[in-house]
Amino acid sequence: MSLSTHVLDSVQGRPAEGVPVRLDKGDRLVGTGATDQDGRLRDWLPDGEPGRGVYRLTFDTAAYFSDLGVKAFYPEVVITFVVDEPDAHYHVPLLLSPFAYSTYRGS
What whole-number distance in Å separates Cα of residue 104 and Cα of residue 96? Predict the structure, then answer.
């Protein structure tokens, strides 16, 4: 099982580098990281994570936009999703702007 994400800044038309991200399962912190120069976060979780269950990805968009000097409406984006196939790869992209966001299950 693996989990990756890709954050794209749709206003600037480029990857969102340095977005702090955390993954939780219930009240348990599973992992943290920040997006790389390509806006990606991959190979960042301990072995065996995530297993089956409901997970929550939290993107610290306030920190990202603050570093750019941009006022934003959403201080964080939280995406809750279900892992029901532990051997599958899960990719959760985020398209981001200061006043809107979108996500989908990627491949």
Answer: 12
Residues near 2 by Cβ (< 8 Å), separated by ≥ 6?
A: 42, 43, 45, 89, 90
Q: Show the domains of the chain with their CATH numbers.
A: 2-103 (2.60.40.180)
57 and 81 in contact (C-beta within 8 Å)? yes
The helix/strand count (H/E) of the chain reads as 1, 9
Rounded mean pLDDT, 26-41: 96
CA atoms of 86 and 65, how far apart (whole Å) = 34
Q: Is the pLDDT of residue 51 over 90?
A: no
pLDDT tens string 80-91:
999 999 889 999
pLDDT at 2 over 90: no
- By C-alpha distance, which of 79, 75, 73, 76 is closest to 104? 79
Q: How far apart are CA 80 and CA 30, in angstroms?
A: 14
